[in-house]
Amino acid sequence: EIVLTQSPGTLSLSPGERATLSCRASQSVSASYLAWYQQKPGQAPRLLIYGASTRATGIPDRFSGSGSGPDFTLTISRLEPEDFAVYYCQQYDGSSPITFGQGTRLETK
Amino acid sequence: QVKLEQSGAEVKEPGASVKVSCRTSGYVFSSYGITWVRQAPGQGLEWMGWIGGYKGKTKYAPKVQDRVTVTTDTSTTTAYLELRNLRSDDTAIYYCARDMSGFTSSWADHWGQGTLVTVSS
After folding, report:
1. pLDDT 10s digits, B48-63
2. For a FRET experiment, which of A40, A46, A84, A109 has its CA 20 to 30 Å from that of B44?
3. Distances (CA, A) of A2 to A5, A65, B25
4. What's the alpha-carbon Rg for chain B, to the nearest Å?
5. d(CA A109, nearest CA chain B) in Å
6. Mean pLDDT of successive 10-residue stretches along chain A, which has 109 residues
């Protein structure tokens, strides 16, 4: 199965700063079949990005996704107070069972 | 609007089985799939399985495939996750989510509120 490794494990930033989160796959992910989710404490995950770069409905444009093959990035251009949460990448390449990365915790500096 | 409403918390003994339900509304059930994801306390997300809304095709995570069954009742647009031979490390919040494909597992855009399953003697 495809293993996803997210880095860093924890990212400490201030509101207004730019956040760059990485997700690396153990093998190339076909057709950029990669999604990003945000999860806040006590809540279900929320879809942010699918197809590596397409924002889900209602997601602000400060969130953007990029990448292909084994390397993907989630960028939050200017952090808002509500963006501090845990972020997960997920691959849905048909050659492998679905897997998630271990998560990146974005915390207030 | 799209809704997924899950059944309530469960407490089970080791070796028992649990069946979690996920009642859906607000969309054409057969056009999408349902994926199941769990989250152990303080841990990350773990995919369990998927079922297609069109023909009921299923996919399971290798780690649990011999203990899990995902089904749907199209008459009530409800999905079910059954996990057998429960162990303490099955203690987790179990989420259902609407998967965007009715033909193969993909990404999930709407999620249920989660069901806490506790396995303890």
Report:
1. 999 998 788 999 999 9
2. A109
3. 10, 19, 33
4. 13
5. 21
6. 96 98 94 94 97 96 95 97 98 91 97
Q: Chain A: residue nearest B115 by CA? A: A44
Both tokens assigned to B26: 């607000």
In the numeric block, which tokens belong to residue B70? 């995902």
Q: What share of chain B is helix, strand, coil (3-state, %, to 5)?
A: 5, 50, 45
CA dihedral B67, B3, B110, B73 (to 10 degrees): 30
Name the closest residue on chain B to residue A99, using Cα atoms: B47
Contact assessment for residue A5 and residue A27, using Cβ atoms and an 8 Å cutoff: no
Quote the CA–CA distance of B79 and A5 in Å, as a whole number.
Answer: 31
Q: Taking CB atoms and an 8 Å limit, are A102 and B106 in contact across chains?
A: no
Least CA distance to A96: which residue of chain B? Answer: B61
| Residues B104, A94: C-beta atoms closer than 8 Å | yes
* DSSP class of B64: T
